[in-house]
Design goal:
Helices cover 0% and strands 51% of the residues. With 112 residues, it is mainly β. Strands 2, 4, 5, 6, 9, 10 and 11 form a seven-stranded mixed beta sheet that branches. Strands 1-3-8-7 form a four-stranded antiparallel beta sheet, with no helix packed on it.
Length: 112
């Protein structure tokens, strides 16, 4: 069964950190461009960060300098390290690989 599974979300105070994981099964992430997107209540789903199979990375302006996307080919997993979190980072975070693979989402809530 091919699937993506996100984990690592939770409740964190402003200024805190979380690391999200996106683990693939049934296929190799190494062949795909991988993106993290997020969707806050009542808003559209927006791109947060992406990493190409070449290793090239791209970030939304709102997270540059705070978030880092990386991949571990041995674990077939992509990570999103999120530092200096703000209330406006609160959303459901989704992992995407190519046109067909989506995870179920993981909730990130930044609140004091």
């Amino acid at each position: 069964q091919t699937q993506l599974v996100e984990s690592g979300g939770g409740l964190v105070q402003p200024g805190g950190s979380l690391r999200l994981s996106c683990a693939a099964s049934g296929f190799s992430l190494g062949y795909y461009d991988i993106s993290w997107l997020r969707q806050a209540p009542g808003k559209q789903r927006d791109l947060v960060a992406s990493i190409r199979s070449s290793g090239w990375t791209n970030y939304a302006d709102s997270v540059k300098g705070r978030f880092t996307i990386s991949r571990d080919s041995a674990k077939n997993t992509v990570y999103l390290q999120m530092n200096s979190l703000k209330a406006e980072d609160t959303a459901v975070y989704y992992c995407n690989a190519g046109p067909n693979y989506w995870g179920q989402g993981t909730q990130v809530t930044v609140s004091s």
